[in-house]
Design a protein that fits this description.
The chain is an alpha/beta fold. It is built from 13 helices and nine strands. The chain binds N-carbamoyl-L-aspartate.
Length: about 325
């Protein structure tokens, strides 16, 4: 496999972390440990090895919709031999509907379980939860804030597909303002060397100044391209995202914002042969399904990698047995 994954011992690893709240919790050495651990998890699934988290329970507490993130966390826990309790629609289907605070819900759920994966519409919700939680909190997306496990699986995918995590030209397209996956991915990429980031934002949806400041401070080179067509010929990775309409001010305003350009056959013709197209999914209309059959369309392989990376995160944070 890749340089990094063979250079580091690809074994399941415990992490020197209590919670995983932001991509900023992860420096290069921790990222490499986690990716090595995910590689070991991939082998564990293939070889259906023993369940190292037998007897432990994960709560998935999701106050926003999810398909991949929640189900891959749950499948990851089951693959590790643990068990899962789940609230898939916590805004309506938990005591939040009766007015219970997030903090109180976390105190209670933490009394029943060993780990909590939390998705919430408010930026900073995972950090708030971590302040009162008796068990590790994993941020499964907090509003337009962070989504660190998605960014880890994005890196895992890049590593697998392109064989390196340094010196890449990465085009980031779509809703860079509200897209938490892009925000976390930029932070993780900033831990590696020599990247050029090419932003291709949908109109008005440029990456936040907070992330740009970190990129500047870490010496990451970045520029903005006019459109996907212009950027495509030089890229190693084209990371497309949907406009986060649920995070735009009002319905009318949300509907009025166009996407940032569609990945279609024309874009694929311009993209280098070795490059890959990624997307955290769900896609709406920003990638033409006609390109799904192109070997460079990596987004479904990317989603599949979520299982191994989340196994590594769960194992890494679980209490020592
Ligand atoms: C993303 C999210 O929830 O931020 N989805 C995911 O976790 N794969 C992207 C999105 O919803 O657009």
């Amino acid at each position: 496999m890749s340089e990094i994954l063979t250079a580091s011992p690809a074994a399941p690893a415990r992490l020197p972390l209590r919670h995983l709240l932001s991509a900023e919790d992860l420096d290069r050495s921790l990222i490499e440990t986690l990716l090595g651990s995910a590689c070991a998890m991939e082998r564990l699934v293939t070889e259906s090895g023993a369940g190292p988290l037998r007897g432990q329970i994960l709560a998935t507490l999701f106050y926003e919709p999810s398909t991949r993130t929640r189900l891959s966390f749950e499948a990851a826990m089951l693959r590790l031999g643990g068990q899962v309790v789940s609230v898939a629609d916590a805004l309506a289907g938990s005591s939040a509907a009766k007015g219970e605070s997030l903090e109180d819900s976390i105190r209670v759920v933490g009394g029943y379980t060993d780990l909590i994966a939390l998705r919430h519409p408010e930026v900073g919700a995972a950090a708030r939860a971590a302040r009162v939680s008796p068990v590790p909190i994993i941020n499964a997306g907090d509003g337009a804030g962070q989504h660190p496990t998605q960014a880890l699986l994005d890196l895992y995918t890049i590593q697998r597909e392109l064989g390196r995590l340094d010196h890449l030209r990465v085009g980031l397209a779509g809703d860079l303002k509200h897209g938490r996956t892009v925000r976390s991915l930029c932070l993780l990429l900033s831990r590696f060397e020599g990247h050029d980031l090419i932003f291709i934002p949908a109109p008005g949806l440029q990456l936040g100044e907070d992330i740009l400041a970190v990129l500047r401070q870490r010496g990451v080179s970045f520029e903005t391209a006019a459109d996907i067509y212009a950027a495509a010929p030089t890229l190693d990775v084209l990371y497309q995202t949907r406009v986060q309409r649920e995070r735009l001010a009002g319905d009318a305003e949300g509907q009025a914002v166009p996407g940032g350009g569609r990945v279609d056959r024309g874009v694929m013709e311009r993209l280098p042969r070795h490059a890959i197209v990624m997307h955290p999914l769900p896609r709406v209309d920003e990638i033409d399904p006609a390109v799904d059959g192109d070997p460079r369309a990596a987004y479904f392989r990317q989603a599949g990698n979520g299982l191994f990376v989340r196994m590594a995160v769960l194992y890494g944070l679980a209490a020592r047995g």
